[in-house]
Amino acid sequence: MGCLVIKNGGAAALPEWKALFARLMPGLEVREWNDPALDPAQVTYALVWKPDPGRLAKMVNLKAILSAAVGVDHITSDPDWPKHVPLIRMGGEEPALQMADYVLWAVLSILRDAATWRVGQQDKVWTRQAGPARMSSEMHVGVMGLGSLGGPVATRLVQAGFRVSGWARHAKTLEGVTCYTGTEGLNDFLQACDTLVCLLPETPETIGMVTYEKLARLRRPAGLINVARGALVVEADLQRALDDGTLHMAVLDVFDAEPLPAASPLWAHPRVLITPHAAAESSRPARAEYVASVIQALEQGRDVPLRYDPVKGY
Length: 314
Known about the structure:
Blueprint: E1 3-7, H1 14-24, E2 29-32, E3 45-48, E4 64-67, H2 73-76, E5 87-88, H3 93-111, H4 114-123, E6 140-144, H5 150-159, E7 163-168, E8 177-181, H6 182-192, E9 195-198, H7 212-215, E10 223-226, H8 235-243, E11 249-252, E12 272-274, H9 284-299
Parallel strand pairs: 1-2, 1-3, 3-4, 4-5, 6-7, 6-9, 7-8, 9-10, 10-11, 11-12
């Protein structure tokens, strides 16, 4: 079956990883990334989060690299990563369900202007909104990115009663979702929405994609939810949009620098809710089950989903 090396959770997590794979794939040897006795040539599979640059290249018998997260930029940022080896993004039902739960919470927080309540609680002020709250049917949410996470998110929002649009690089069809495609559809997509959910992968084309000019195209009161990567949003433009009222509220789970520096003005902004990159993180049992299914498929010569495509960049 081979040898799986894991860089996720450190040495303290190794007993749990071993117990999980002993049940799922008894013939698989499981080793920890920093094991001094590990022979790189013996490694056939690697499950990693932010691997040390150059380490994967030394594992000359790798059959596949599995990302411990949905994104793979933490691997592809290493210029020496072995590009001939299949790179598989983390999948399974659990991260999609977690992301859908998080985004629904974030959208509802914007719908009910929860940032105002947060400030009122901090200041011990009994703050009430003027007039009746908006209904979910009055809010139009746009999901940028309709892949393994964005698709389930859009579907969950439809089920919750929101009007939903989606935008993707390539044509998509989702029940109850108005889908837009490519550069030619981006402007119409933005102008149809009042709350933007960013779920695009980080690629050279998407870095810096969400600018002040794009946020200004949203309907008012406008909201932003970023659960993709911090680099996709121009932070100075985000700050400007919040300060001048172009953007009414933002829920942010990802940032250019993580942890978010204490000096960042976003921490204290009254129109921002911040979470610590926690929108979707699969449990170890769920990750182990997914990894086992991928290894089994590869060993049997079957294709696997969520394989990194260097042309698309994700």
